[in-house]
Amino acid sequence: MINWVKFPERISFRMRLFMVMIGMLAIAGLLILGTTTIQYESQRENYHLGRLARKEIQIVRHISYLTSKHNLVNQPVEVWEQFSSDFEKINSIHNVQYSLFTLEGNPIFIYHSPLEVVANNYMLNNSLLQKIKETNQGSYIEHYRSEIDNFHASYQILKDDLNRPYAILFFPYFEDVSFSENELNTFIQNLYQIYVLLLIGVIFIAYFLSRFVTRSLDTIKVRMGEMRLEKKNEKIHLKNATREIDSLVKSYNKMVDDLEESATKLAKTERQQAWQEMARQVAHEIKNPLTPMRLTIQSFQHQYDPNDPENKKKLNDFSSLLIQQIDTMSEVAEAFSNFATLPKPKMQTCDLVELTRMALNIFDQEHIVFSSDQAHIYHKLDRTQWTRVITNLVQNALQSVPKGKIPHIGVQLTTEPDKTFLSIMDNGNGIPPEIKGKVFEPKFTTKTSGMGLGLGIVKNIIESHKGRIGYVSTLKKGTTFTITLPREEN
Fold it and tell me: Residues 412-439, buried b or exposed e (16+ Cβ, 10 A)?
């Protein structure tokens, strides 16, 4: 068993255009959303770092003022602690928390310290001190991310008026993360709503745009599907077509002109070939009797003797032969005339059983068996043409039987409610498979005599009665021709 693979149907141009427009909007939305989010995060980071720097400047100025006022540069921690109340006021004045360390990392004032400092006995470890001292400006920012504290920590070396370092300032800056996240979420939600509206609008626009663009293509497709060689094809005329569609329409219209010209040339060529073939066939059929007539006359001229007592008999034989050949030529002319101008059938209601039996009476009834499933079958048909059909088919059946074999011809009429069948069966040689398609051609014959017009005329008669004719054949066993006639309701 062969498993046929069913390929999916191709996506139409209209659907592709629709999908491309929706896809472009979706990609643009994702790009804008991603870019906006990145830009928002960057701006938020810059904003907080700037705010941290401004706060830090204010604290540094205040600490520098107190240090200069109390002359605390290069003083031990115990001296600093004497003025702790002044330094503690900085927290409330600036609403911040900070801590001060010596240059060696020991604590001076601890108001807020990261967990690393707490774990290190409130001292700055050596690695952190190294990072702070390696910076150009003596300022180092570190980001702390833990379950307890999330903040930016600024470590800055404080210097006096003579640019001498005397302490390290630790200043934590806490972001309002919930506010930032809510602000970003609100922005994204608004962006989503805008894009939903845009998507709905683009869907409508894409639908009507794709329909407008493909309407011309649908027109061309319909016209191309209706294009036929045997009829006059209409051209396409579109208004406001695009350059590509207009080029396609022009190509189609040119194809219509070329097809019409080709059809005219083909019809002319077929007519010429038909006349040439008909003339060749007529000439061939006329030459057949002319040759024996010429030979007979020449022979009669050479053998004629005025004193021969049998001259009268010879003259009679000579005349009979000429008349026979002339009759043959007359039959040729009549056959071609009948085929070329088959008279219009004179339809009248006839008894098909009686008419068929009458047509069979001219043949030897010994070899023909006629049967009908009804005593009377009435049809509207041309009596003369039906007789010709029966005569031609039965004669062909008899001639198909080879010499030395007794012919058995069966003629049978059967009926159905809406049609009647006539079957003519013989026990002849049958029709070879290689010529089955040529049987009803007007110039085709397998016999050594005749013009091959009989079955062509039969087919024309049957078709003029709105019927059809067919056959089945088996070599060396015989052929059955079947005529089907529609029955008209009375």
Answer: bbeeeeeebebbbbbbbbbbeeeeeeeb
Query: Model-level pTM greater than 0.85?
Result: no
Buried b (16+ CB within 10 A) or exposed e, 298-328: eeeeeeeeeeeeeeeeeeeebeeebeebeeb
| 419-425: strand order across its sheet | 368-372, 409-415, 419-425, 478-486, 468-474
Contact 386, 345 (CB under 8 A): no
Residue 413: predicted pLDDT: 94
d(CA 64, CA 73): 10
CA 232 to chain CA centroid, nearest Å: 27
Distance CA 400, CA 410 (A): 14
Are 433 and 324 part of one and the same domain?
no
Nearest to 398 by CA among 362, 373, 422, 439: 362
Query: Who contacts 254 (Cβ-Cβ below 8 Å, separation ≥6)?
Result: none
CA dist 79 and 81 (Å) reads: 5
Residues 33 and 155 in one domain: yes
Is the residue at 44 inside a domain? yes
DSSP 293-326: HHHHHHHHHHH--TT-TTHHHHHHHHHHHHHHHH
Position 123, amino acid: M
Q: How confident is the model at residue 489 (pLDDT cuts 50, 70, 90)?
A: low
Burial (Cβ within 10 Å: 0-12, 13-18, ≥19) of residue 454: buried
What is the distance between the alpha carbons of residues 29 and 37, in angstroms, rounded to a whole number? 12
pLDDT digits (tens, 9 = 90+) for 132-190: 888 777 778 777 665 555 677 788 888 888 888 888 888 787 665 555 566 667 777 77
When pLDDT is averaged across residues 205-215 and rounded to a whole number, the result is: 73
164, 264: one domain: no
Nearest to 59 by CA among 97, 85, 106: 97
The per-residue pLDDT for 446 is 44
* Res 414 pLDDT > 90: yes
* Residues 370, 334 share a domain: no
For residue 413, tell me if it sits in a domain.
yes
3-state secondary structure 284-300: HHHHHHHHHHHHHHHHH
How far is residue 257's CA from residue 473's CA, in Å, rounded to a whole number? Answer: 45
Domain that residue 20 falls in:
13-180
Name the 3-class secondary structure at 172.
strand
Q: Please give the pLDDT value at position 351.
A: 92
Tens of pLDDT, residues 420-434: 999 999 999 888 887
Integer CA distances (angstroms), 306 to 69, 100, 303, 313, 314, in order = 178, 167, 10, 13, 12
